[in-house]
Amino acid sequence: MSGHQEIFSKTVVIEKPKIGLSKSHDDVIPFRVEPFKETEISKTIDDDNLENDEYFIIGNTGNIPLNIVVNYGVYNAILEVSENGNKLSANEKFNHFITLNAPEWQAGVLTISGTVTGIIPEDLIITTAPFTLETSPVIQAANVEVYVGYSNYQIELIPGTNVVFQYEKNLENQKHKMEFYQ
User: Fold this and answer.
1) For residue 161, is it left (φ>0), alpha (ψ between -120 and 50) or beta?
2) DSSP-H helix ranges across 49-170
3) Coil, helix or strand at residue 178
4) Are 107 and 164 in contact (CB under 8 A)?
5) What is the CATH number of domain 21-149?
6) d(CA 20, CA 29)
7) Where exactly are the structural domains of the chain?
8) 121-137 confidence digits (pLDDT tens)
9) What is the pLDDT confidence band of residue 42, given thresholds at 50, 70 and 90?
């Protein structure tokens, strides 16, 4: 044979790997629970009331897939986050909904901060030479605020202390509260 015959040809573009995360929608996910009562509350999609659902969105702003890990530290045992640990493709987004499995808490307000980390899946890294990529990006997750108190009660935290008290909401109490802070 004297010549070469091309059977198939494809152009391949190799880009420098780029990783990045973005967060949008709610910065705070509030929960209201009764004191001294175990409770499970889920924030999920409600088709009739989609605008008011409380969730946060994580987007992959890079050009390679990332495993998304949402971490609330010691509170991971009571907070379940949807899509946690799942692979997020480039230029896509996850809606993250939270379920709170509240133990028997006393009255008060608890703010829980968390992080979101994007990790490059090991099965995507194929190399014969040593190389390094950017470190896994870490951003702030939505804060979870838990209000532990009875329905129709106001929860007050005295600034600069750990003292919490609650009282029944009504117009007279609001008048006294205004006088107290003047």
Assistant:
1) beta
2) none
3) helix
4) yes
5) 2.60.40.10
6) 23
7) 21-149, 151-182
8) 876 665 655 655 556 88
9) confident
